[in-house]
Each structure stands twice: as C-alpha cells, then as structure tokens.
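Two entries, shown back to back:
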Amino acid sequence: MKYKTIRLQKEDKVALLTLHRPASLHTINSLVLREMRTALEEIERDESVRALVLTGGEHCFSAGFDISEINELATAAEIRLFFRDARAVFDLVEDLERPVIAAVGGLALGGGCELTLACDLRIAAANATFGQPEIKIGMIPAGGGTQRLPRLIGMTRAKELLFTGDHIDALEAQRLGLVNRVVAAGSLLDEAMQLAAKIAGRPPQAIEAIKLAVNGGVRLDMKAAIALESRCFDNLVATDEWREGIVAYVEKRKPVDPGR
C-alpha cells in the first residue's frame, strides 16, 4: 500500500515505520492515525517481521498531535473521537506481538512523546528532547501519557513533568529510565536497526511470550502476574521452537530457526 504520511520498509526480519510529515514536524493528524493503524495491522499479519523500529528520523520524532486540525474540529464529540482513535493506535503499538523500538531524534513532545511511551524500548539521539507540555495550554495528555509515564519513571518524577510541562534532554531521559541508551544523531537509525535485528534473531515465540507476560503482568498483583507468566511458559513448552532450543543446547549448537 502507498502511504502519504508515513513510510513503511521491511528489511530481513525488521520493519521500519517512519513518520513523514516534515513540514509540520511529523505532527500526528487523523490521516497519520489511519495510516499507522493500517501499517501496524499489515505488520501483525506478516509473519516474516519479528521486530519494528518506529521513528521520525534523526532530526525530529514528532512534535505531537496536530493542534491545527484539532482546532478545526467543531464539537467536543469530534475532539473526543480524535483522541479515542489516537489511544487505539497507541494501544496497537503497545500490544503488537513483536517488540517495538522507538528511535527518537529531535523533538518527542506531547502525542509524540506518548507514542514513544507505547513502544517497548527507546533509543534516543543526543539531540532528542522529551516532554508533555499540554498543561501549558490547559490540557492534559490524552494519548496515555498520564498512565504510561509514571509506570516508566515513577509517579513523583512523572507528576513533575506533567505539572510543569518542562522538557528533558536525552541524557536526563536516560537517567530517569525513559530511554535505554543515547547515541549520536548520525547513528540513531543504525543503532536501532541493529538492536531490532538482534532481537529479531531470538526465538520469536519466546519473545512474544515475554512481551505478553511483562505487559500483562504490570497490570496485575504479584500472584496473578506469576500465574500469567506460568501460562505463557506452559504454552511455550508445547512448541517446536522450545524443543529445538533445548535439543540445541544439549548438542552444543545454535538452534535452527523454524521460521514463522
């Protein structure tokens, strides 16, 4: 499919989804949301894809939701529908069976920051800036920011960023645990693609089980979370992938990739 506001490429086992509205700093409008949904559904169906890198390029990830489009919406109901669609797309990112790595260069603000929070891992270029500035115009984050940010960096620091609307740079984001690593802007995509390729080379059903167990477990009490982990494990040991891994370990060789 030909997209207007995003780019989708596939290389070996890794997909690269790039936001592409450079004239508006990759702000997220209704068309971006529709095209992202279609692309994510395509990736979900493509069993050859085992990891996804999501980026806006090394100069800007996304400056947030398209306020100009939101301002043109006539009613509160239309505004609610826009943000409901946004949350649904961000949930698709979070719930994608494959690991999703955000490669963040330049601005990741508002909805752009919230999109990175829905990803599994975040690699930031040294020029990256993160923030939830909605409070400055009398709004609150509406793409999951009030929920995902505290779960990543803790309630106290999250509240400070949400209450003030202040921005943080890449090194501070790393210190807070918001990003996994900081790299030079010129090597951002290479670093993200290399990490994605490394993960894509791991047994795919086990990767999916880990993501399901971790994402589901944080919403549960410890006893229920351990039970979820147990169910994921029980399902995994019934697969050919698990058996091949055990046999390969005993035979002191690399497992044969069963494909998908």
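entry 2 starts here
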Amino acid sequence: MLNKNKKPAKNADVVNKNTGEKWYYSDIVKDHFFKPRNLMLKEPKKTQYDAVGIVGSPACGDQMKMWLKIDKKTERVKKLKWRTFGCASAIASTSAFSEMVTENNGMTIEEALKIKPQRIMERLGGLPNRKIHCSVLADKAFRKAVSDYFRKTGQYRRVLTDGSKVIDSKLNITERDIEEAVLEGATNLNAVQKKLKVGIGSPEVIAEVEQLIRFYAEKYYG
C-alpha cells in the first residue's frame, strides 16, 4: 500500500485541488490503466461465455461487468473478460486480477475465490489509500459471475450468498441478488424472474420478493 503522507521523489500523479492531498501511482498501475488486459469493449454473444457478473451502478459510481469461460471438467477459468465504468485504480486492479486468474493455464474457481485485495495491490505495487476499495470491485464481480455459473449448471448449493438473507432457498437467491437485479433495470416481478428465476419453484416467497422489488425500486428510482 502506498502511504499518501510519504512523498516519493517523483511528482504526484493527482493532486486534490480542495485538500491538497497527493496521489502517486506505480508504473505497474499506469501500465495496466493505459494497456488494460482482457478488456471487453463490445457485448459478446451469449454463447461465447459460460457466466456473467455485474456489480455496481453507473448512476451510483463504479460499475463492473465480467464474463467467464470455464473448463467444466477442471473448473479452471480459461477466459475472463471485463468492462468497467470506473477510475484508473478500478481499471488497473481488474486488469491485474484478470491476469492473475487466467495465467498459467488458469486458476480453478476455488483458487481464484481465495485472491484477496492485498494480493492485487501487491501485484500493482500499491494503490493510494483512498483507492484501496477499487481492488475489491473485481472480486465482487468475479463472485457474481461464479454464482451465475453455479446457477446455470444447477449447482445451487454452491451459490455464494456472502451473508445476505436467503429469500429462495432452492435456488440460493438472496436479498442482495434482488437488489442488484433492480439496479440493472428489472423493476417488476416478471423482469426479476427472467434474470433470477426466483420464486418459480417456491411460490411461497413471491410476496416477499415483490415487497423487496418495490422497496429497491423506490430506493433507487423514486
């Protein structure tokens, strides 16, 4: 981690006009920012990748979308592509993460899930203190994509719930899943079910799902 109070010999890369705070980016961060690895600018065909994960909202800040190609026999990540609306730190962190996961014939899903933000920052040579949260964005998108893969392959017990309240226990769908579906534009039951299939096999949860949709739609769209 780079200490914002320590002044390297080089000039600051960014200076906050209001506070005078200085940010310094390593050459590795700049390399990943200017030449991001595994970046996907165009929307791929649905059949090209096995899973997709989206976190965040461009209306609220950084957004990350990630696609995975998985070897079904070994569960190694053969391809990882991504796109983000975010800052230089978010771009560099995700670029580095994508390299880590896919190099040397690809990590297994379980190995990739163990990557901590500290490892990403070490690979980048550090990040400014106020940008450490950007190293988490790739991890969150990856976990979303992995959960999508588990759902598409019928491995519902392996879906990652991250401590959020489970609404549909058969499909392991949580409150957070519904919130993110609403953030992605699904503001009624049919649209949410198209994304998540929540409640289709468990009609007893429909009332709670509809209540959550109304709550999040009001929260984000007014």
